[in-house]
Amino acid sequence: MFGGRKLLAASIAAAMTMPVLAAETAPADVVFDDFAVTSSLTGAPGSPEEGAKVFKNRSLGNCLACHANADMPDDLFHGNVGPEMNGVADRWSPEQLRAIIVDSKKVFGEETVMPGFYSLDVGINVRKDLVGKTILTAQQVEDVVAYLGTLKE
Amino acid sequence: IASLGLAAHADPVDDTLEIDGEPMITVAPAPEGHPFDTVYSGWLFREPETRAVEADSFENPGMLAVELGESIWNTVDGTAGKSCASCHDDAAQTMSGVGAHYPKWDADSGKPINVELMINKCRTENMGAEPYKFDQEEQKALTTYIKHQSLGEPVKLDLSEGEMQSWWNRGKEVYYTRTGQLNLACASCHEAIMGKNIRADHLSQGQVNGFPTYRFNTSGMVSLHNRFRGCIRDTRAEFPAAFSDELMALEVYVTWRGTGLSVETPAVRQ
């Protein structure tokens, strides 16, 4: 009985702390360390399938607008503003990819044209309904990191 | 790469534009203080079919706006019982080359004035007519008609008039200010990555010498301030009102960035 109650109490405590443990890191709290973001923004693993959707969707990442991606031959009009994505996972670790997606300026410098997808350090006169919002959610960032991790040569 | 639908070109094409046999200046040495050495007309960044339509006035759908503009020019409106022609006669003579030098300094308002606002000024002050609303069809047509009278004429502003220079300075600041959630400035797209493809769009220098332009995707004329607002909106930002001080300053500065290019109004875009 006693042991059971203790277990119950422990699992209630666990249930109560779960949301805290899994809480997303707020954009301002993301820690950049040597051009990398070491810890997951959500604590949950990313989904490569969802990440691929975010990569091509024009209202989400729209990464394809700037990056050609040989993994998506059925989609027309790949941009060529940034590097091609083939083998990107050979060039960057998941922690570095997370940093690039969260706020590319922290990796490439202020002058880059790549938007920060999980940053509130943005331009002036942001559209009213988007003020205080990031382009992608923390989970979508993790999904894209997981997807890019599959792009090996 | 071609199988990905990637356009193979990265730079302006090497081609010459003649409109009905008249040569256009589509490549010009940049004015002193310009970030580029050479300025290029947006025509050089478009697909061959689009370029061909602009080169032939009979095919150019923008010429319908020129025709509409001509008929408005000759139509009496307002309490003074006058048309534009009552005072300015034949636009082919009186407006020849005029549009290539706008915006100009307007001492009355103490601001730069563009062709759209000059039309409204004549309508209100000289005709007793209502000013056109922004992007009203008549405004676009009459502006197109007036600019078309400068076809081929190189763009050149007089920055020594009034306070044009300080408006140029302000416009330059706007040009380099990043806006919106995407955090991009005009210079991000039309200077830093000029010649690249964003999706299907081949980025030009964002020159204004063809405005108002005819666009196939909306099958109609697009005014310059409409284009400015569209580009700003695409950064996911709130955009300023047409003819606001901010966009007038931008018009002064961006027009200067195309100094030496022929007026191509009505240019054709996809």
From TrEMBL, chain A:
Keywords: Heme, Iron, Metal-binding, Signal. Residues 46-152 form the Cytochrome c domain. It holds the Pfam family Cytochrom_C. This is Sulfur oxidation c-type cytochrome SoxX. PROSITE patterns: CYTC. Coiled coil: none annotated. Residues 1-22 form the signal peptide. GO terms for molecular function: electron transfer activity; heme binding; metal ion binding. It comes from the Bacteria.
